[in-house]
Description:
By secondary structure, the protein is an all-alpha fold. Helix content is 80%, strand content 0%. It has a single domain, classed as Up-down Bundle (Growth Hormone, Chain: A), CATH 1.20.1250.20.
Amino acid sequence: xxxxxxxxxxxxxxxxxxxxxxxxxxxxxxxxxxxxxxxxxxxxxxxxxxxxxxxxxxxxxxxxxxxxxxxxxxxxxxxxxxxxxxxxxxxxxxxxxxxxxxxxxxxxxxxxxxxxxxxxxxxxxxxxxxxxxxxxxxxxxxxxxxxxxxxxxxxxxxxxxxxxxxxxxxxxxxxxxxxxxxxxxxxxxxxxxxxxxxxxxxxxxxxxxxxxxxxxxxxxxxxxxxxxxxxxxxxxxxxxxxxxxxxxxxxxxxxxxxxxxxxxxxxxxxxxxxxxxxxxxxxxxxxxxxxxxxxxxxxxxxxxxxxxxxxxxxxxxxxxxxxxxxxxxxxxxxxxxxxxxxxxxxxxxxxxxxxxxxxxxxxxxxxxxxxxxxxxxxxxxxxxxxxxxxxxxxxxxxxxxxxxxxxxxxxxxxxxxx
Length: 418
């Protein structure tokens, strides 16, 4: 089935996956980035101090995500969606009203947990769970929401910061989301109860899993699986390294002599390449399986960040973000399907919740630790070299996981090896 026919056969549910990712932007680093200088000046914060606030709030959200994210395996998706969308709206209002670092910290927390954490988690988990033979296509279609958001939101944030000021920008966002977001999502989930019942009836794992305790499964299976730990370093590369560089994009621009508008403009390459690679990646996942594609996925990001160590020419921004877009684009269907292939659809919410929480903790550490490095005089080139070394080590571990440790005694992947 081609993409058009696939979309027309599942329009509302695929739109739900797409829009959950699209509107998660209000909790994403690429939307925060253009506001950081204005916020720093209003609160008299250094790069390291605002990075610390962002890191602490994201870290707390990441820890809570380990518990809240697993609830998607047990709570009605409509209720789960309404609550996390309400959290995003509350976060936008809290940002516009923040008067001190405590209220700013709370606003960061709400936005990171609801947007960057739970909205992405809900989209990828549902697309992966309720589509079987065309799981890769479903995740790719939903993943267009990320590409679309990354194409428009950095520029929108830059314009809003300049024309409205950061407080009014967040207040406008809150009012807009209040009017449209929850009613739209509830309409898109019309009939989901029947879809979930069909999933439980058709899946033996779903029937048995209805009585299972996800907490026990996490302890006895996931946290004792060597594959989980071999995947961890590579899985944290994009959340940690890329988040840190994007959060401090204005520092990177200053260090390289770039205009402040260069990286927001280069995000169009990031989003465009990501969009194309996601389209290509979905059918590849359906044909070959995520297991055999994931060992190659971090290579473009390695090459992209290498550009920051090689040259400060403006073309480096386009190459760095464009190559990062390749990793993200292919990573949307590959990463979305990978955990279902490893652990099956019934527990994919729990598996993704743990990885999502760890990714959030990585994004929490990135702004603060990179801010400290930059405040201490460490160059962008040195950070890029360290990042490349780390990613090469992670790549080696992924290859070991896939080609040496995939079949583990007592652990049955969700989809048989192909």
